[in-house]
Amino acid sequence: MNRLESPEEQEQIDFLHRLLMESNSTEHQTTGENLRNRSDILYQLGVAYLRNEEPLKAREYLEEAEKIADEFQDSSFHAEVLYALGDSYYQQRQFNAAIAYYQKYLTISQQLQNHRGEIAALFELGNAYLYLRQFTQAATFYQQCLEIEQQIGDRYSSASTYHQLGRVAQNLREFEEARRYYQQALAIKIEFDARHSLASTYHQLGYVAQDLQEFEEARRNYQQALALKIEFGDRFSSASTYHHLGMLVYELREFEEARRYYQQALAIKIEFGDRYSQATTCQSLGMLAYELGEFEEARCYYQQALAIYIEFSDRYEQARIHENLGIFAQGLGEFEEARRNYQQALAIYIEYGDRYEQARVHHNLGTVAQRLREFEEARCNYQQALVIYIEYGDRNSQASTYYNLGRVAQELREFEEARRNYKQALAINIEFGDRNSQALTYQELGRVAQELQEFEEARRYYQQALAIDIEFSDRYSSASTYHHLGMVAQELQEFEESRRNYQQALAINIEFSDRYSQAITYHALGMLAEAEENYPEARVYLQTALEIYVEYKEEYWGAMARKVLERLPGDGVIRQA
């Protein structure tokens, strides 16, 4: 990112360049004093360019300063140059190179018993390992940093270290531990009235609350962070909080509000030339566009994000884009394309040892295999996902995976296995108060009971599903439940009850213009009329179903409808659609 230079910064750089030119004059350049002065000017130029986010220019001067410093026995100055060289690589996200320089700086600081230098080195080493997702190493350096801060009584600096330990815990999904660290950081910042730096900790507390599904708490923290950033005119940092507010309202399905926040974030990132973090917001805008059915716009955003991550050689974030491209392709029915993207994402997550993200990709690979009717492949992926979700104690994600394992077992007609999985999913749905997921699971338990000829049990499950559909005014989902209640009543020879349920299902499907589901219910009403020996009515319903099947090129159910029409008594002729 090339930040806009302030006039004062440019004046300082120009002044240092003039001093450097003077030090290059032949009459002075070989004296020891001049070389020391020259190395100091080179160092200051390097630091000035670092402040201006120009790491390549900075390194040009710092490397020359380091060569000169190496000739003298001024370890303290040599250490400062090494630290700045580490920063130059850090700004370019070349973290391994940065680590090498921070380690050299740490060694010299320890030799000089420079505790402040040790703190700075340990903190930056922690940051570099955090970005490399080597969380154990990061935590080790932060803890060493904290020990020295406590030893010398530097409470103020320890706030930043507690904050970073919070980030490590958050990445390890130890959310309560993360919250404790952030609250320790917050208390110290409040004690020292460090109002501007409070913003970053409120922001992270918002992020933790969001991870814990505490959405109102998350919103309060993000808004406190944003208010402080606005108060201090910190437009650059406010982009991150706008982005996270977008993520929050996206989860709450407030999509237009999410778009506004994302666009505010993106505009600021473009204004400051922050290409790398533009990718994150492009990715989120892609997810939003996909959710709203704006598929070409979604693809465009994903490709922009992927191009930036490739430009910055960020393999880990490329995995996230491949995962989203997989979701995108899956939504469009391009299952092999989806599988390719998921497998690319999985390979990178394995490379980085990120078990939790692997679980989500295994789950998605399971859904692709399930859609392709590769049920054993689906089961294998779901089971791999489940093992990891159990390992991380992610009960909510376990529920979704148990549910899908139930669907696979049901397709394979392993009904007792299906029931076991659905009941495990249901228990977790109830534990989390997830009423919508409960409705879906009750309906599937009803279908299993129906397959096992346990019709009263099936009816109880369907009625529980219907009660939740009505509670949430989910008319569309209730159509399927009414249809299945009709099927159960028909099996129990309760024909009037069956007809009432089918007609309620049909009315809703007509209301929502769901032609295909209308055909299924017309077909069922036709079969019911045949059972009651009302053949003219049966013919009307079945003929209507057949016409829709032909419209949808549904050969199997079309053939079934024709077969029944042909066996109906009377002189009726099957109309050709």
Q: How would you characterize this protein structure?
A:
Helix content is 82%, strand content 0%. It contains 28 helices and no strands. α15 packs antiparallel against α16. The longest helix is centred in the first third of the chain and has 20 residues. It is elongated. It starts with 6 loop residues before the first helix and ends in a 10-residue tail after the last helix. The N terminus is likely disordered.
Quickly describe the structure.
This protein has 577 residues and is mainly alpha-helical. It has helices spanning 7-23, 32-51, 55-71, 75-91, 95-111, 115-131, 135-151, 155-171, 175-191, 195-211, 215-231, 235-251, 255-271, 275-291, 295-311, 315-331, 335-351, 355-371, 375-391, 395-411, 415-431, 435-451, 455-471, 475-491, 495-511, 515-531, 535-551, 555-567.
